[in-house]
Amino acid sequence: MARLLHSLAVLVAVLWSVEAAREQQSTHTNNWAVLVTVHKTHEYSSRLSCVFNWHFPLPLVYECNIILMLADDMACNARNPRPATVFNNANQHINVYGDDIEVDYRGYEVTVENFLRV
């Protein structure tokens, strides 16, 4: 009987936590995200593609509330064999750079000072 009551109490606590999280999500509307890459060599393009992969599915974050800082704009880099593109895998099926990517800080603008200001 004690185990049953304990299990029931845990279940109620979990359900209450989930409901509280839902209420908090629905009322909080000023979410921001800062996405940063610091690599300046073409060999780290996979890490850059990870940033772009995160750029799209951020729930509860409006596009205008995403700050994107790229130490090297790989898509427009002269070493990129396919200009204006960044792919998330070797098969190059999905261009994660896209037309709607807005870079807020690039190149030498990506500094510790600017990051802390943001």
TrEMBL record:
Record's GO cellular component terms: GPI-anchor transamidase complex
InterPro entries for this protein: GPI_transamidase, Peptidase_C13
Pathway recorded for this protein: Glycolipid biosynthesis; glycosylphosphatidylinositol-anchor biosynthesis
Keywords: GPI-anchor biosynthesis, Signal
Signal sequence annotation: 1-20
GO biological process, one term: GPI anchor biosynthetic process
Ranges that cross the membrane: none
A GO molecular function held by the record: GPI-anchor transamidase activity
Superkingdom per UniProt: Eukaryota
UniProt entry tagged with the keyword Signal: yes
Family the entry assigns: Belongs to the peptidase C13 family.
Descriptive protein name: GPI-anchor transamidase
Organism in which the protein naturally occurs: Geodia barretti (Barrett's horny sponge)
